[in-house]
Amino acid sequence: MPMDDDPKNTSRYRTGLEVRRSVLGDQHVDRAVDAATDFDRPFQQLITEAAWGTVWARPGLSKRERSIVTLALLAALGHDEEVAMHVRATANTGASRDDIREAFLHVAIYAGVPAANRAFRIAKEVFSQMDGAPHA
Fold first, then answer.
1. Which residues contact 77 (CB under 8 A, 6 or more apart)?
2. pLDDT digits (tens, 9 = 90+) for 30-45
3. E strand intervals along 3-130
4. Structural domain tally of the chain?
5. What percent of the chain shows pLDDT beyond 90?
6. For residues 106 and 28, what is the distance between their CA atoms, to the nearest angstrom?
7. Which residue in 47, 54, 84, 112 is a FRET match for 24, CA 20 to 30 A apart?
8. Which domain holds residue 27?
């Protein structure tokens, strides 16, 4: 593919990679990029450009606010691995544990108690890891 057609050379990709790193951390993004194969590389490029370079890079909501919205949506949809990843990311977005609790309380009312229960359990496990304590 000619260099000009490489999606990694687009402004949206570069912005997305910068935002993705600022939220998820260099280690996480490096692992995702390094693990990409010919099969899923287009997917990694898509999420870098669309999620991170477009939605997360927009003005209007802070990273903290986007983090809270993202956690509520992921919890409501039952995307457990993504919930855990975005709970860890709150260390970079400024969303507090109180913010997370409030988001999950909304999930309980609008998406169901089982979804919120699972999200609370995941968050507690992640907080335990982040705090360096053994899981219960």
1. 111, 115
2. 999 999 999 999 999 9
3. none
4. 2
5. 90
6. 28
7. 112
8. 1-58
Q: Do residue 54 and residue 67 come from a single domain?
A: no
Q: DSSP 3-state assignment of 96?
A: coil
The amino acid at 52: W
Do 44 and 32 form a contact (C-beta atoms < 8 A)? yes
Count other C-beta atoms under 10 Å from residue 62's C-beta. 12
- Residue 70's CATH number: 1.20.1290.10
Number of Cβ within a 10 Å radius of residue 24: 19
- How many beta carbons lie within 10 A of that of residue 57, not counting itself? 16
Q: Supply the pTM of this predicted model.
A: 0.88
Give CA angle at 91 (36, 73), nearest 5°.
70
Q: Are 57 and 98 spatial neighbours (Cβ–Cβ below 8 Å)?
A: no
